[in-house]
Amino acid sequence: MTETLGSDGRPVRPSPGSGAALAQPPTGSFARVLARARAEGRAALVVDVKCRSPRDGELIARERVEGYVRELLGAGVEALAAVTEPQYFGGSPEIARRVRAVSGVPLMRKEFFTSVAQIDESHALGFDAVHLTLRTIGDLGLVREMQARAAELGLEPVIGVHTREEIQQAAELGAHVVGLNNRDIRALELDEGTVGHSEAVTGLLPPEVLVISESGLHSPDDVARAARAGADAVLIGTAVAKSPDPAAFVRTLAAAAWRR
Length: 260
Fold this sequence. Notes:
By secondary structure, this protein is of the alpha/beta class. The protein has a single domain (29-256), classed as TIM Barrel (Alpha-Beta Barrel), CATH 3.20.20. Helix content is 38%, strand content 17%. The protein contains eleven helices and ten strands. The strands form two sheets. It has an eight-stranded parallel barrel, surrounded by seven helices. α2 runs parallel beside α3 and α9 packs parallel to α11 (246-256). Residues 4-8, 14-19 and 21-27 have low confidence and may be disordered. Residues 1-25 are annotated as: Disordered. Its EC number is 4.1.1.48.
């Protein structure tokens, strides 16, 4: 993959915020949110609904999930992610159903996927997208099978990457949407990854790929940096859940997401 370097020596993504042509028009509702944000010159805000974090402990009481989601929607959140992994993040299919029941926006499933059957389960739960993390799946053949099944069911497969090698693998997989994790998912949010990782490697991704900057984002400044680096969306969860006023915080983050 050929790199174009900026004056600071970092890879530069060609025309990330100027409505760069996509490989094909996005057909799934989740990808359309990202494509619309790109066309408008900003990064979309996707809030990650997770009940617990390995680093921060309980984030959202289970009985408060519906109220929390309604707060987010009232603040204008365009898309959501729901974590269904139970051991480390306190998720479950039941919580996903509850999130889906009170929200009409596109919803992405975050899970440690291990089988194609989980793609069918995701469709049955009402998800619009599935986050397929290369680092945890570990088998590109299986990822391809998951991609194919997701496409058959009308789900958007979001390919999760962290390293430069995984970025190359995502290109080989023909990914339309890539989730760029600022942290190593195997560290379960206990490493010190920051938005600086997105700034360093987003430029390696082809301009036709829609990119989500994920994890390690805590502030409006982080969101602004991700947007300027070329991210078409930011995925942020813990910082919103820990805020004393999640709705107000979401509005502040959204205001920072315009490319300047």
